[in-house]
Protein 1
Amino acid sequence: MGDPLHLIDRDRQHSWHPYTQAWTSRPPLPIVKGRGVYLYTEDGRKILDGISSWWVNLHGHAHPRLNAALAAQASQLEHVIFAGCTHAPAIDLAERLVEILPPGLTRVFYSDNGSTAVEVALKMAWQYWRNTGRDERRSFITLDRAYHGDTIGAMSVSAASSFTEPFTPLLFPVTRTHEPYCYRCPVGLERSTCQIECLNALESLLRERGATVAAVLVEPMLQGVGGMIVWPAEFLAGVRRLCDSYGTLMIADEVLTGFGRTGRMFACEHASVTPDIICLSKGITAGYLPLGASVATEAIYEAFLSDDRQKTFFHGHSYAANPLACAVGVASLDLFLERDVLARIGRLEQQLREGLEPLRALSIVGDVRVIGGVGAIELDSNPATDASSGYFDEIGPRLAAAFLEQNLLIRPLGRIVYFMPPYVISDDETAWALDTIAKVLRAI
Ligand code: PLP
């Protein structure tokens, strides 16, 4: 750290690796091959990808069907400008998404990663109110411990953290309110007896200044970077209800949760909620290529439909709707149907529960949280302390190194250890990973 040259890890690569140097002070793993749930290193190691390669991989690495879809599309059209031109993979994927998204989300706007999907949603919400003559709606409400990406707008709507601190003067102001973090309840209650009182703070804000709010932005059901915080579905339902009552838009950032990660195709389904805009990326291409989509309702789309150029949504990225990415996205959705992937995630969820719940007996374990294909263990048995400030807690790199010694790739978020494998992981592989996690945690 300090000297940026330290970030140039290998002379022949001359590349900067996000977080790696600061995080582990070890050189990055040279990966030469991926197959199924495994990554293979230059020196012949076979490592189980326990974090789906930054939460993107769904059906395993180098899946033959996805490889074939990619090759077929590459031989036809690798890329074309998506302003004034269109192509079958973009149209097919948009149609397929609209079929499976919560009802009412009908208009797909493509970009090229998760942060840009969020930027697009924020700009779209902001301009929606301009275009409809409600200029006073200019602010955003987001949640404590939120994470929405690393670009300036996405950082602004994320919680203040070590990630955003160096850039604070560049960020625009937003209003933040409680997240439903049951283990560290922001209003000091117990989930078994509470009535989701953590929602009252949002209600108060909307009561006070609802008429000036452009949108409320949430990561439904699972706040990822903030600590793998699993929500009660009632909170999500409550956000939609309050947005309706106070006439503001609801944006759901499903960059992490989309495409089955929480056990439903989209996390909003847990509360049968349709947001006004949903942000998608990561799993949209099953981990193959960068692609983002911000999908809006007809009402939002219509606010931009005009001969008045001032009402145009001026936002476009060079690689928006890349045909290779869209073709793989369509093939991935085929796999979901043909292989009944959601049922597989249901079984994985069960196995994660059975494997992780017993770890509560360890004195270092404070909480165990499981949703869909994600299992998390909070290593802080005192809910009164604040583990979220512990991203740089030395236990994270120490555990990561111990997992890696066992050939399991897991990157704890400070004191939050989580396992989020590709869905193709077998029962035996899951059992091995869960045993390895238990073995490593018992040894610390
Ligand atoms: N939103 C959420 C909920 C995320 O978890 C992430 C990344 O982890 C992003 C947005 C940003 O996505 P990307 O890294 O593709 O920019």
Note: The domain at 8-59+340-442 is CATH 3.90.1150.10 (Aspartate Aminotransferase, domain 1).
Protein 2
Amino acid sequence: MVELKTDTSIDAMYTAGQVVGQALTAARKAADVGVSLLELDEVAREVLRGAGATSPFLGYRPSFAPVPFPAVICTSVNDAIVHGIPTRYRLRDGDLVSIDCGAELDGWVGDSAISFVVGKPRPADLRLIETAERALAAGIEAAVVGNRIGDIAHAIGTVCRAGGYGIPQGFGGHGIGRHMHEDPSIPNEGRPGRGLPLRHGMAIAIEPMLLAGGKDGYHAAGDGWTLRTNDGSRAAHAEHTVAITETGPRILTER
Ligand code: MG
Ligand code: MG
């Protein structure tokens, strides 16, 4: 069931979304060669704590997970696509890092992700990240009243495929509100004009995931959480929480 949010609720989600944006900005600023993923998690925890927010990631345990998620951010490095658990791993020159963060404030949740390179970037990684951001922007642009979910999916998928990138099937965006994952699902590829019509008050997370090798294959790593590319190629992830309104899409996790 898709729950439509009131304008007041969307304002409250924006406030939660700002905390997510601040946590991502702080974690990105802290990320550098030699810094550990656990240290980035600590930076994000501090931002959430300071804002009086809690983490919808911490302790989260979907059916596929062998253990509850132990952190407030996902840190997915190089061939990790999403859901990477922060570890003692220290970032190296040229690592491609994706950080995904959520925050819950006053009962409302925001969810957003960024990808970037620490140290000296490879041109191919910059192109991958730039395309992920463009796919996200295209998805947001299609998130308007009168369109359907398939229009968002098609917009994202078109940008990804035009770049020659793979798209992991079965993972994508989602409704969001009082819970991190609500109906509907927002696939990263689809047919225009299909699916649920978009209405004023829908809140969704849009999150393209791009695989540099051009193939769609992925697998869960030994920790049961981290998704990695099958071909070892790098991956990028970009995400915003967006409200669909009569006056256009409103990015609730803007930074
Ligand atoms: Mg996320
Ligand atoms: Mg999400």
Note: Residues 7-251 form a domain with the Creatine Amidinohydrolase fold (CATH 3.90.230.10).
